[in-house]
Write a structure and sequence with these properties.
By secondary structure, this protein is an alpha+beta fold. It has two domains: about 100 residues, no CATH class; about 160 residues, Beta Barrel (Thrombin, subunit H), CATH 2.40.10. About 35% of the residues lie in helices and about 20% in strands. The protein has four helices and twelve strands. The strands form two sheets. A six-stranded antiparallel barrel has the order 1-2-5-4-3-12. It has a six-stranded antiparallel beta sheet with strand order 8-7-6-9-10-11, with no helix packed on it. The longest helix has about 80 residues.
Length: about 325
């Protein structure tokens, strides 16, 4: 009973003070903040120390308060990652099954191709060999479009070999030294390459003119070509194997001039591959050291004079 009476008496005493405290709380906080500012201006070191202590006390509490949100975020990320992995696994399984079907189809076609070749008594092409080289000089200019590479006869390079990059045809070897070789680019004025439009199979000759985009010559007037059509080698003449990517048609003028943009940017070329397709260099570049005449000249026997006719019996020469 005494405790209850004391509690009632205390509530009676503090009840009138509550409205006063609420009225002056804002003003008291303003004065406290103003006082802290004045102390901070007077002694910055004390304020910084106090701020550090408060941060040390509040930091763990803030970290602890943010722990549930971080746990929820990690859980959501884990669920998303799991769903992504499940979808990726399903996609890879489907691709694996498609690859198996394609592998089976390819193997069937390979066996069928081998059988047809045996039936046709097919002669397989020669084994391709290559030499990788680095471009050490760009002899480009207004009158010449050549490259110098650091591979020569010591590495097995010979005149007439085809030079390619990872994107397509670059040119062919025209000069060979012991350690270096010169490459005639497809854009050079002296370059002539038999090509074909891949989609329509129209034949033409790719002629360089020392510009970045060589021309198509001897294209039929009935040929219908469009910008973006792929140009590949035709293999005619034996200089280049068929089907090598050369470039795409860049422009077609009203006068019929067709320009081709090569797949490779020769100014930025660093490494090339010299490929040997077992081609006869003598048929590609006249004047090669290894050249042999295409048709051997046969020495005709000298015409001997006809023997004099013996006089008939009973006749005498006067």
């Amino acid at each position: 009973m005494l405790a209850k009476d004391r509690g009632k008496s205390m509530s009676r005493l503090t009840k009138p003070l509550a409205p006063l405290a609420q009225r002056f709380a804002f003003l008291s906080l303003v004065f406290v903040a103003f006082g802290i500012m004045m102390v901070g201006k007077a002694d910055i070191v004390v304020i910084e120390r106090a701020r550090g202590i408060v941060n040390d006390m509040v930091g763990p509490l803030v970290d602890l308060a943010g722990a549930p949100s971080r746990i929820v975020a990690r859980t959501i990320d884990g669920v998303d990652t799991w769903n992504a992995l499940v979808a990726e696994n399903a996609r890879l399984r489907a691709e694996n099954e498609q690859m198996r079907q394609k592998d089976y189809a390819f193997e069937t076609l390979r066996q069928e191709n081998a059988l047809l070749r045996r039936l046709l008594n097919f002669t397989p092409e020669a084994v391709v060999s290559f030499v990788s080289a680095r471009v050490i000089a760009d002899q480009g200019g207004s009158f010449v479009r050549n490259l110098l590479i650091n591979a020569g006869s010591r590495q097995g390079v010979t005149r007439g070999q085809v030079v390619v990059s990872e994107r397509g045809l670059v040119g062919r070897i025209v000069e060979v030294g012991a350690w270096t070789s010169r490459v005639l680019l497809t854009t050079d004025l002296n370059s002539r390459i038999p090509v074909v439009v891949e989609s329509s199979r129209w034949r033409a000759v790719l002629a360089g003119d020392n510009s970045d985009e060589p021309r198509l010559l001897y294209l039929s007037d009935n040929a219908r070509v469009a910008v973006g059509d792929r140009i590949v080698t035709s293999g005619h003449g034996g200089g280049f194997p068929p089907g090598m990517p050369v470039g795409i048609i860049a422009s077609v003028t009203q006068g019929g001039a067709v320009r081709v943009r090569p797949h490779e940017e020769f100014q930025r070329l660093e490494f090339v591959r010299v490929v040997s397709f077992a081609l006869d260099a003598a048929r590609v570049i006249p004047g090669s050291e290894a050249n042999e005449p295409l048709v051997e000249s046969v020495e005709q026997p000298r015409a001997e004079p006809a023997p004099a006719l013996a006089p008939a019996p009973g006749l005498s020469r006067r």
